[in-house]
Design a protein that fits this description.
One of its GO terms (cellular component) is plasma membrane. Keywords: ATP-binding, Cell membrane, Ion transport, Iron, Iron transport, Membrane, Nucleotide-binding, Transport. It is found in: Cell membrane. The protein has 252 residues and is of the alpha/beta class. The protein has one domain: Rossmann fold (3-Layer(aba) Sandwich). The protein is built from 10 helices and 12 strands. It has helices spanning 40-47, 70-76, 92-98, 101-104, 110-122, 138-151, 168-183, 196-202, 220-223, 226-233; strands spanning 2-11, 14-24, 29-33, 55-60, 63-64, 77-80, 156-160, 188-192, 205-210, 213-218, 238-242, 245-249. The strands form 3 sheets. Strands 6-7-8-3-9-10 form a 6-stranded mixed sheet, sandwiched between helices. A 4-stranded antiparallel sheet has the order 2-1-4-5. Helix 3 (92-98) runs parallel beside helix 6 (138-151) and helix 5 runs antiparallel to helix 6. Bound molecules: adenosine-5'-triphosphate and magnesium ion (MG).
């Protein structure tokens, strides 16, 4: 379980995450949606201690992220950031290997290698494993970074816009993989996502943010309504039931 209590982030006089309190259940897919600038990435960064909180607390599996050691936290929680850049030239396999660092301190074992190969396979990156990361396409690079996060093999996986740059097939594969991690391996996945229909089809819980506040939390059935979506995005979105899923349809 992840517990947020009054989580707050300010930059100067501006409060960009404003007293967010929420409980994210263990063992599920939780999607965070909301317009650009709503505070989604800031909230995810605070959950993982990439950003310190200005007020409030975050607990992950009972650990206070502000006071838990980096190594303990890195064995509990992994995060994919929205922007990922490398300053050194690395092969894909070496990049993915960094995910094992919290477990082996830089001395890979047979078990680490198994995790690396499995993560490469999950992301359809085995054939590209010996390429340098700077020789990849945008979507391939995104998958390499996600493979690194999965190789970390933590109970809690936070992903900021994992579908960035992915084509339709790889987006569907990605969402199915996230479901498998939850359903088969008992992981807890929290992702930021702009595609409300992927959120609707693959999430157990959806959290909607706007202007730094958490304004709605519920199941897809509860969130995928024209009223809630208008509240979040200021757009009229028609919601259709297609094969049991609530799908938003919108036109310019
Ligand atoms: N380092 C910073 N200094 C000042 N303001 C910042 C900083 N980082 C983010 N912000 C502001 O905080 C607000 C929330 O940003 P955040 O990146 O969390 O939004 P987001 O919901 O992830 O948006 P997007 O969908 O565009 O990724 C924005 O208004 C942004 O301009
Ligand atoms: Mg963001």
């Amino acid at each position: 379980m992840i517990t947020l209590d009054n989580a707050t982030k300010r930059y100067g006089p501006i409060t960009v995450v404003d007293g967010v309190s929420a409980t994210i259940p263990r063992g599920g897919v939780t999607s965070i949606i909301g317009p650009n600038g709503a505070g989604k990435s800031t909230l995810l960064s605070m959950m993982s201690r990439l950003l310190p909180l200005d007020a409030g607390t975050v607990h992950v599996d009972g650990l206070d992220v502000s006071t838990t050691s980096g190594q303990t936290l890195a064995r509990t929680l992994s995060i994919l950031r929205q922007e990922n850049q490398l300053t050194v030239r690395l092969s894909v396999r070496d990049l993915v290997g960094f995910g094992r660092f919290p477990h082996n301190g830089g001395r890979p074992t047979v078990v680490d290698r198994e995790h690396i190969e499995r993560a490469l396979e999950y992301l359809d990156m085995t054939e590209l494993a010996d390429r340098f990361v700077d020789e990849l396409s945008g979507g391939q690079r995104q998958r390499a970074f996600i493979a690194m996060v999965l190789a970390q093999d933590t109970d809690f996986i936070l992903l900021d816009e994992p579908l960035n740059n992915l084509d339709m097939k790889h987006s569907v594969d990605m969402m199915r993989l996230l479901r498998r991690l939850v359903d088969d391996l008992g992981k807890t996945v929290v992702l930021v996502i702009h595609d409300i229909n992927f959120a609707s089809c693959y999430s157990d819980t959806i959290i909607a943010m706007r202007d730094g506040a958490l304004i709605h939390q519920g199941t897809a059935e509860e969130i995928m309504t024209p009223e809630v979506l208008r509240d979040v995005y200021d757009v009229d979105i028609q919601v259709e039931l297609i094969r049991g899923n609530r799908i938003g349809v919108y036109f310019a």
